[in-house]
Amino acid sequence: MINLIENLKGTGVAIITPFKVDFSIDFNSIIKLVDYVINGGVNYIVVQGTTGESSTLTEKEKIECRKAFITANRGRVPLIIGIGSNDTASLVEYIINSNLEGFSAILSVTPYYNKPSQEGLFKHFCSVANSSKIPIILYNVPGRTSCNLDPETTIRLANSNKNIIGIKEAARDMVQMKRLIKNKPDHFLIISGDDETAPISILNGADGVISVAAGCIPKLFTKLINSALKGKSNETYYNLESIEPFLKLLFDEGNPAGIKAALSVINLSENYLRLPLVPVSNQLFIKIEKFISENS
Q: What global pTM score does this model have?
């Protein structure tokens, strides 16, 4: 467990699920994407998270994708699998019955839509942690779930469940982030879920990031994160300033529309998303293309 926690410090990448023109999964692109981000210096890969459009994958596709990522990875970096639900009982049953061999941990999002209380969130994640043979990383993204996991609840979960090893914190709230960093137990990872504020969070004591941008600019992004981990603030701000315009472009029309546009520019995957998501506008695509051509 100690080795896993150390290996999950730094840059994780939230990887896309690539599709072909007929919206079937592009398994050849999975191989290219995994090689690209590992060669670019990322420390681990998150499969079937928000960026992976997991909500539009059938169960058969999820299983096939998991196998494809495991094969492509060849044991080089830890793989994290996104598994979450707003129905605790069905989530627990799913985790118990799933073959998760090849994955180091589960990234599990807070229950969406039903808006549980903090006590409900605590009991939900205790149930999830007790059902899983592999560690759990909490995922707090209130902008998508309409539900915020308060720092006090997170720390309570960390202290009462050895199988909960960290949180991907994507509330874009630096006060909340600092409270987590200040009160976390030693074994617990604080991972930023926001590319733009991640370097500042790390300079304040966070352990790393699960990044979207690292999927297309891994060398630039890992350089940024590594400078922050070393406490080199001047270098960090300089590196951030150079890619900040690109980060804004990536999220201007939502994720993963921006990252899929960027990856199509560098010929790693095609620019297809499943409804209700659609590709970025032509105007934004041109801006993304321009940044990449000027920085390649």
A: 0.97
